[in-house]
Specification:
It is a single chain. The protein is α/β, with parallel strands linked by helices. The protein is built from twelve helices and eleven strands. It has helices at residues 13-29, 66-78, 93-104, 116-122, 136-146, 167-173, 196-210, 222-231, 246-254, 265-273, 327-330, 334-347; strands at residues 3-8, 33-39, 53-57, 85-88, 108-111, 180-184, 213-216, 237-239, 258-262, 277-280, 300-301. It starts with a strand and ends with a helix. The relative contact order is 0.13.
């Protein structure tokens, strides 16, 4: 008899992206399992083409806003059941409420253990407990193991899908005659942002030494405006920010030779489509468990903890720099990142 699980994760964008490869592998190992994945509507492309997974986009800003909205959401979700259990991969107030409402009707709910205590020790000022913590994707898998399912992860990048890009992307980027390198210099929090000046310098190096087409990634609004100025300074470059939808953006990332990203969503998007990522880490550290799925630690660019013992000072990069100079990011030069990118291109 098949089983159906309701899975919840609403944010952040990178964390939602990390659920996709986990759910795909779990479904492959449990042929009698179906999953209904509930998240923000615009994140649906992360879950396209996963067999036996149905995506439900929950508009939490309008239709399902507030407690009354969450009750309506639960009512609508129950129409997609019956469910054998709820997998809470978020463990925040909103999902506590949703899970609690399902529990009232007799459903089993298993919530992710985020390891908050260990993460706090990892970034403590003074005496840190500097050791690798359980990967976030393994924490997701643990939820399904507790529900009785097989959940062994390969930690391998998926094989890239072969094929041409859609007509819109071809018009935007043209034909590929040299390496395509993506650069995503922004992140949600300051402690993870390398910045546009260093990104421009890296872009110039890539254009000059690798004859590369540099593709800048970012969000709409201010980031898009900043990147519009960047492309004026980097030969053979283009700004995607605000110009493509998520599905088209993922397709473009599939065709990149390398993605350069902060500890942010673009790294996880690269993991979804099998593209290697050279990641830049400042106030945060991959020991917290947020390295992109299947990405190599060899491609991490950082100032070592031996050189800068205040690292890491934040799990999410949202704490102000105690030194006030963000040496963890300022010390990472374009040349350091270029070398990592060149290494990936040469071994391909």
């Amino acid at each position: 008899m098949s089983k159906k699980i309701l899975s919840l994760r609403f944010s952040a964008m990178g964390d939602v992206a990390m659920t996709a490869p986990v759910l795909k592998e779990i479904l492959a190992q449990n042929e009698d399992l179906e999953i209904v994945m509930v998240s923000r509507p615009f994140l649906k492309p992360f879950f396209d083409d996963i067999p036996r997974l149905t995506f439900f986009g929950a508009d939490l800003n309008n239709k399902y806003k507030g407690f009354k909205g969450l009750r309506a959401l639960v009512k609508d979700l129950k129409k997609m059941g019956p469910f054998d259990a709820v997998a809470d991969l978020h463990s925040v107030l909103r999902t506590f409420i949703i899970g609690g409402l399902f529990q009232l009707s007799g459903h089993k709910v298993i919530r992710i253990d985020k390891g908050r205590k260990e993460k706090k020790a990892l970034v403590a000022s003074g005496s840190k407990t500097l050791k690798p913590l359980k990967l976030t994707v393994e924490r997701y898998a643990d939820v399904f193991q507790k529900l009785g399912f097989k959940a062994s992860l390969s930690h391998q990048l998926p094989t890239k899908k072969q094929g041409d890009m859609c007509e819109e992307n071809i018009k935007l980027l043209g034909s590929k005659t040299a390496p395509w390198i993506g650069i995503a210099p922004f992140a949600q929090h300051k402690g993870k942002i390398w910045g546009e000046q260093k990104a421009v310098a890296l872009g110039k190096l890539l254009a000059a030494k690798k004859n590369a087409k540099v593709i800048f990634f970012g969000g709409p609004g201010k980031e898009a405006e900043i990147l519009d100025e960047c492309v004026k300074q980097v030969p053979n470059s283009i700004n995607l920010a605000g110009n493509v939808k998520l599905k088209e953006e993922l397709e473009i990332i599939t065709h990149l030779d390398v993605m350069v990203s902060m500890d942010s969503a673009n790294m996880h998007m690269a993991s979804l489509v099998g593209t290697e990522c050279v990641s830049v880490w400042g106030a945060t550290h991959h020991y917290a468990g947020f390295l992109g799925y299947g990405q190599s630690t060899d491609n991490i660019t950082e100032i070592s903890v031996k050189e800068l013992d205040c690292r890491p000072c934040s799990v999410f990069g949202n704490k102000p720099c105690l030194r006030e100079d963000y040496a963890c990011l300022e010390g990472i030069t374009p040349e350091m990142v270029y070398k990592k990118v060149a290494d990936v291109i040469e071994k391909a």
